[in-house]
Amino acid sequence: MEELDQILADMGRVMDDLGALADDAFDERLRLLQEQKRLRVRAAEVRAAAPINRAALEAELAGLLDRWDGIQDQRIDVVMQSGGGSQGGDAFSGAHAVRMNQEIDQALGREQIELRIAEIRRLLEPPDGQRI
Predict the structure, then answer these.
(1) Which of 19, 42, 92, 110 has a C-alpha 20 to 30 A away from that of 11?
(2) Per-state percent for the chain, helix, strand, coil, to nearest 5
(3) What pLDDT is stored for residue 103 in this prediction?
(4) Has residue 85 got a pLDDT over 60?
(5) Closest alpha carbon to 48 in 113, 116, 122, 118
């Protein structure tokens, strides 16, 4: 994994260099973008060659799914908040509930959890492409 760590560090350096370029530095931007592409390909090769610890990934997935469920339990039911069913409610309550849910998601890292869940599921997917 040391090689992967080095590749990721190099990718970070390339991203920093890209961000620091002048708007008209086209040749340098092209060179850095090609380097970024080469590093991404190499990182994918290193990851694909590395053995996976299936039990550890399954345990991590179970923990992440529990955390995701916990976040869901803390979110506001927008339909019920705005009056529910056919009775309706004021639009402000519903909009406020949506905003509160976004704040809850951001504070608890829901997006990062969902991304990691997707990554683990991809890693655990059988080589023949059938879903588990």
Answers:
(1) 110
(2) 80, 0, 20
(3) 95
(4) no
(5) 122
What residues have CB less than 8 Å from 17, skipping those under 6 apart?
A: 32
Residues 3-26 have a mean pLDDT of 92
| 41, 58, 102, 113, 125 from 99: Cα distances, Å | 39, 33, 5, 19, 35
| C-beta of residue 33 within 8 angstroms of C-beta of residue 14 | no
3-state secondary structure 60-88: HHHHHHHHHHHHHHHCCCHHHHCCCHHHC
Q: DSSP letter for 128, please.
A: T
Mean pLDDT value of segment 100-118: 94
- CA-based nearest residue to 32, from 9, 16, 8: 16
- How many of the other CB atoms lie within 10 Å of CB of 110? 19
- CA separation for the pair 106, 113 (Å, rounded): 11
Contacts of 20 (CB under 8 A, 6+ apart): none
In terms of Cβ atoms closer than 10 Å to its own Cβ (0-12, 13-18, 19+), residue 93 is middle
